[in-house]
Design a protein that fits this description.
The protein is an alpha+beta fold and 206 residues long. Helix content is 32%, strand content 28%.
């Protein structure tokens, strides 16, 4: 009986070389796109934190942080100097400290750690996202010819919080810096002795 030779299929060296070339091209393309994708993901995460913290801080100012007892733990510095504030009400006073010369409130620069976001990134001393806040509060402009217009103008405030980020570990802004402004109007009275005033958001009597 005569045996016929069996032919076994296999890749040639040319086919292997082409396959390796395709794989190498795909890997290079992925590596090239990866940093851009990570940057977009980081930017989106930072934008989300800024949007959430902006609303959080506006609410703190509106209520004098009455329901936010831990606000002061997220403040790291004022005008690049470590702060010595010991409660959340002090943070509100610092953000809204009156400037009687220009009828404009605090324009100091505050550095906060991310208030919202993953819980594991919220502890003091952990590497986390930081941003600067500049607060500007002025009396609203109201038509004083309206009934109680003068009282409304006196007890209604335009609030502007300017967020700048990201902040480097040395307290400087990274370049290029991002910016977002939050604005609202709040009504109420500043009560208490000068320097210790707190905003009372309750309905004011004209």
């Amino acid at each position: 009986m005569k045996l016929r030779p069996q032919h076994q299929a296999a890749f040639t060296m040319v086919e292997i070389a082409i396959a390796l070339g395709v794989i190498a091209f795909a890997i290079i393309a992925i590596i090239g796109v990866l940093p851009s994708g990570m940057q977009i993901q980081r930017d989106n995460r930072q934008d989300t934190i800024i949007n959430q913290d902006g609303v959080y801080l506006l609410e703190a100012l509106r209520t004098s942080a009455q329901d936010i007892p831990d606000l002061y733990t997220f403040l790291e510095a004022t005008n690049n100097q470590p702060h010595s504030l010991t409660n959340s009400a002090d943070v509100v006073r610092a953000l809204m400290q009156p400037d009687t010369t220009n009828n404009i409130y605090s324009t100091n620069l505050f550095i906060f750690r991310a208030i919202t976001g993953p819980a594991v990134m919220r502890g003091a001393g952990v590497p986390t996202f930081r941003y600067m806040v500049r607060s500007l509060v002025t009396n609203s402009t109201v038509n004083t010819n309206l009934a109680y217009g003068a009282e409304m103008e006196r007890y209604t405030y335009d609030v502007r919080l300017t967020f700048l980020w990201p902040v480097l570990p040395n307290g400087e802004l990274a370049a290029p810096a991002q910016k977002q402004v939050f604005r609202t109007v709040i009504a109420g009275r500043w009560e208490g002795p000068p320097g210790a005033q707190l905003f009372n958001p309750g309905e004011f009597a004209p």
